[in-house]
Design a protein that fits this description.
Strand order of the largest sheet: 4-5-6-9-8-7
Distance between the termini: 32 Å
CATH class of the largest domain: Mainly Beta
Largest sheet: 6 strands, antiparallel, barrel
CATH topology of the largest domain: Thrombin, subunit H
CATH superfamily of the largest domain: predicted glycosyltransferase like domains
Mean pLDDT: 84
CATH architecture of the largest domain: Beta Barrel
Radius of gyration: 20 Å
Order of helices and strands: HEHEHEEEEEEEH
Strand content: 25-35%
Oligomer: single chain
Number of domains: 2
Length: about 170
């Protein structure tokens, strides 16, 4: 992000977003004073101009683990598959996945569940046989899409994580 006049408002919008609030933000240019002006917005690192290869490489190496953690946590694979959903009250419905990650999935259905609803979802993915995972509805939108965050204590997520790693490596 160039540290110009409108950088502050753009970074504020990103930090206020539920899905982008934890992104890695690199500032570009300016002086140490310019970087300090945006420090309350949590810029992770600043590339000073003029760019020097050795300084840029040092900065990239020092923030590498931040970027890797962000990638692993948020990688989403756009995939459409039928998802069976069972609510704790015994109700059942079917939806279609839009994106999936090891932490959850976004879905589109004929009805939308309320955030906080406990569910168990089941689905198949290409080479992954049917898997069942517990979770909770974490968000909903008026266009009948909603998100399910998987229960981090559900051991069955491991098969999904392994499938995602294999998918990304192929």
């Amino acid at each position: 992000m160039p540290l110009g006049e409108d950088a502050g408002s753009i970074i504020e919008m990103a930090r206020a977003s539920a899905s982008n609030g934890r992104i890695i933000v690199y500032g570009l240019g300016g002086t140490a004073q310019d970087a300090m002006r945006y420090s309350k917005l949590c810029i992770n690192a600043v590339f000073h101009e003029p760019l020097e290869r050795s300084a840029a490489m040092k900065l990239v190496r020092s923030t590498r683990m931040l970027v890797l953690h962000e990638f692993r946590r948020y990688v989403r694979i756009p995939v459409m598959t039928e998802v069976g959903i069972v609510m704790t009250d015994g109700g059942r419905m079917t939806a279609t996945s839009q994106e999936i990650s090891s932490g959850g999935m976004s879905l589109k259905g004929n009805q939308v569940l309320e955030p906080g609803t406990a569910v168990e979802v089941s689905f198949s993915l290409l080479t992954l046989p049917r898997v069942w995972v517990r979770g909770n509805v974490s968000w909903k939108k008026p266009n009948k899409t909603f998100g399910v965050r998987f229960d981090s204590t559900d051991e069955r997520r491991q098969r999904l994580k392994e499938w995602i790693v294999g998918y990304l490596e192929s």
